[in-house]
Amino acid sequence: MQSITLLVIILFSTSILLHNDKDAFSQTYQNENVNHDLNNLVTNSLNLSAPVYQAYSGVFLGTKNLSSGPPTISEDHAIEKAVMKNVGNVTNNMTFINTHLPDGTVQSAARGVITSEDGQNISWISSDIGMISDQGELFHGIVQFNISNSSGFSFLNNATGIDTQTPEIKRTIWLIEK
Questions:
Q1: Across the 178 residues of the chain, what is the mean pLDDT of every consecutive 10-residue run?
Q2: CA distance 162 to 178
Q3: Which of 62, 65, 64, 57 is nearest to 92 (CA)?
Q4: Minimal CA–CA distance to 105: which of 140, 67, 79?
Q5: β-pairing, 72-84 with 88-100?
Q6: Which end of the chain has fewer CB atoms surrounding its CB within 10 Å, N or C?
Q7: Where does 52-174 have alpha helices with state H?
Q8: Largest CA distance in the chain
Q9: What are the φ/ψ torsions at residue 150 (nearest 5 degrees)?
């Protein structure tokens, strides 16, 4: 339960940052081998003006109930069409294991494979939290890309990103740059 609470806090904080139209999300950390002055700080950055992935359409393929009682757990499948930085048009084949909590919140663990038009691909996993309503889906989460043998996706090897999906805007992913 503590890990769920921590995940909710992290995702809520991320949500606030994303919705406040910040130009960059930065977190500094200390390196023991560096002088600790402003000129030598290393930061991670999230450039909100340049997403690495932007979906433009999606198809829900189906759902399977995995539980018999509260909370309801489902396995959902979908395919998205998107544009990916440095790659172009891609197809994202996704599977979500969704835990539907009593308050209407949905905790999602997902995995998928993004494939380019020339057959190159990269797999990913994510952890998201959100809600599904009559207006659509509202989710925020963290995406971890795996290592790809495809040269077109090599820039994403072991990369981490923040993703969001709202009723107005399809899934968007920004990389956390080191």
A1: 41 41 34 44 59 93 91 96 94 97 95 97 97 90 95 95 92 89
A2: 14
A3: 57
A4: 140
A5: antiparallel
A6: N
A7: none
A8: 57
A9: -85, 125
3-state helix, strand, coil in the chain (%, to 5): 15, 55, 30
- Name, in order, each residue with C-beta under 8 angstroms of 168's C-beta and a sequence gap of 6 or more: 136
Q: What is the dihedral of CA 102, 144, 51, 90, to 10 degrees?
A: -100
Residues 6+ away with beta carbon under 8 Å from 56: 81, 82, 83, 170
Strands (E), 48-102: 53-65, 72-84, 88-100
Q: What is the pLDDT of residue 33?
A: 40
Q: In Å, what is the CA distance from 140 to each residue of 8, 25, 50, 111?
A: 10, 15, 17, 15
| Encoded tokens for 129 | 């939290």
Place of tokens 């359409």: 57
CA quadruple 63, 148, 172, 129: dihedral sign: positive
Predicted TM-score (pTM) of the model is 0.74
Residue pair 129/138 in contact (Cβ under 8 Å)? The answer is no
Annotated domain spans of the chain: 50-177
Q: How far apart are CA 145 and CA 152, in angstroms?
A: 14
For residue 5, the model assigns a pLDDT of: 39
